[in-house]
Structure prediction request, 259 residues.
Amino acid sequence: MIRTGKQAILLTGFTLLEYLRSGRFFLELTIVIASYVVFLRPTGTPMNAGYLFTVAGIFGPVLAILSTGFMIGLGDRPQGYIILSHNVSRGAYLIGLFYAACLVVLVMYGILCLLVALTNRVVDLDLIGWFLASLPLILNIGLFSALTILLSPLVLGTGWRLFVLALIALALSSNVIGGPIINQLEEINPFLVTILRAVQTVLSGPLVPIFYGYQISISGSFSEVSVWANLVAQSSLLLAFLGLARYAFNQRDLIFSVS
Prediction:
């Protein structure tokens, strides 16, 4: 375990050097500046913490998906064979990509927060409150990064990726399949509706910590036990995603992209 951790840290540094050399960080910086100018620049009206973390709660996961996708592209190259041939575990290889992506997103989030702190002070937020409200946001960044790795061609084949995406779509379908559609289904087969609702409930369970974490960041309230329980749930879900990705990567044939 310790050896894998050391290998992952070394691979993180190597991946970040490749990332900097590619010049890709200019795209992330552009996204940061654009988000600041469009949503968080001074407008003459004092900004509150709820609005800041409403924007940041979307900014972080979206940037996590984009940055992780690029890191996967760096890892999914023939050079990966050389790295893995030097007694580097597949788990360390995958975790190194995850660490690199998360570090990039956290740095960009820090830059965004610094811009806000210097130019558009949040009236109802101190340093401790800023840190606490960032905790569930940071965990969501990790969750979206881990899920992106899990759903990448590097880890899962096409069939399994479509299957997982179908499960996610079904879990989110309660907001889409409703009203007239449900009424029509009940007329055709009430039992089918019962089964559908049960499946949606089961599949949407793992998504609850993600959405609740977003709400926690916006509210900034950490006085309830359920808030800290949700942080534990987010952490557990993150470990589960990484564990699944690592297991799938270890089990599949190692075929890197030739491009």
The chain has one domain: 2-251. Residues 90-119 form the longest helix (30 residues).
